[in-house]
Structure formats: C-alpha cells, structure tokens
Amino acid sequence: MRIIFCWDDGALQDQKLFALHEKYELPGMFFVPTSNREGREVLTPAMIRQARSPWVAFGGHTHSHVYLTQIPAEQIEPEISANQNYLQEVLGEPIAHFCLPGGKYKREMLPLLYRYFRTVRTADTMCFRNRGPLYRPALHFYPRGVKSLLGNALRNHSFPEARLVWARRREPYFTLLRELLQYEEPRNDAMVMIWGHSWEIEELQLWEELEALFALCSTRYRSCCIPYDAIDAAGGPAAL
Ligand SMILES: [Zn+2]
C-alpha cells in the first residue's frame, strides 16, 4: 500500500494542515487556485512561500476555481496556465501536478491538461487501484454516507472494498476509513490517496479526528506515506 495526502482549494485553514504535516512528518500536497470565485479566501503568496517544506508541496487548481466543464473550451487553457504561472512565480519551482475543480472534466480536455502537468487528479473517492488516465482518490476526509461510498466503489471497480463497506455499514465513517487502510495494507498495488478540504474540516470540527489519523499514519503506516511527486512510482495511470 502507498498513502498520499492531498488537500484542495487553498483555504486559509490549510495553515492548520501545514502544521500537522510538519508535526507528524508526513508529506502533503496542496492544490491551490489563484483565487476562488466561490468567495472563499485563499492563501496569499507569502503564506504559500512560508509553508513550502520537505513535507508541504503545491499543485495547480485553476486560476478562479471554475469547473472546467462549465466554461467555453477556449477558456480552459488560460485558467490552468495563469494559475500554473502564478504558483511557479511564487515558489520559483515547476508546478507539475493538477487537480480538477469539483473533479469535473471531459475526456477530450486531457491532452491539453497533460501538456501543462505531469499528473491530473479527480475529486473521486473509493478508487484504490488507479485505472487511468487520471489519478482518482480513495478516501475523502469527510463523513460520506454508505450509499455514496458504495456507488463510488462500484463505479471504480473497488469490489472487495464495497463488500467491506457493506459489512461495516453501521460503523462511524472514520472507523470505516481506518478499516479500509488496514485492508489495503498488505496489497502492493493499492494506492490510497486521502484528500479533503481544510474548510470542511473546520466546518465539521474534524481536526481531532484528522490528528488521530496522522498519528496512526506516522507510526503504523510511516513507510507507506509517500510524497505526491513519487506518485508515478506508486503505480500510475495508463497512458492517454
Ligand atoms: Zn476545489
């Protein structure tokens, strides 16, 4: 099993996540838009620069956090390139990874996205073995209902995981999350991408729950936790 943490939207509460990644020495990837048209404040260039560390890396998430399926085709390139340029200027290093706002895309957009980025990620859940050409996360750090977990598991061909969810359907979500990790642990081809939003964690006050997970990962699963940049080596998606 390989575990990868990633967080979307660059909300100000990401600063709490930075601190947790430093404290537990776990690598985390932060996908940050230049601004957020939903009105949520985003990290300033100074905050981004200050956070960069061996445990904290950054990726693109569009210029205005717009769903790429909701804009005319000719606006897609400016949305992704302006944000990539912005982050590259702030950090002075290449930005190679991208996350689709809302996970929304059409297949025909992918060649353009891969001209700018080495990897592209969705906002999926319950995908434990990537089938390509995108990276699809396995666990949303947000208490999803059983129906959502099962629907996503079946769509992502995660059949043993769907069975596990059904068998444990009365357990609290975060207990289930730990059981899924335990189930994947011996599986060499499993990539467990855990993602979420710091603003959701703040809204639902899930910080203690998250810290418990970090504590578990930094002890029991330490050797499984890899930086996002090592994602290809963790069993990448098929070529386009
Ligand atoms: Zn987002």
UniProtKB/TrEMBL annotation:
Subcellular location: Secreted
Pfam families: Polysacc_deac_1
GO biological process: carbohydrate metabolic process
Parts of the chain that traverse the membrane: none
One GO term describing the cellular component: extracellular region
GO molecular function: hydrolase activity, acting on carbon-nitrogen (but not peptide) bonds
UniProt KW keywords: Signal
Keyword Signal on entry: yes
Protein name (record): Polysaccharide deacetylase
Lineage summary: Bacteria, Bacillati, Bacillota, Clostridia, Eubacteriales
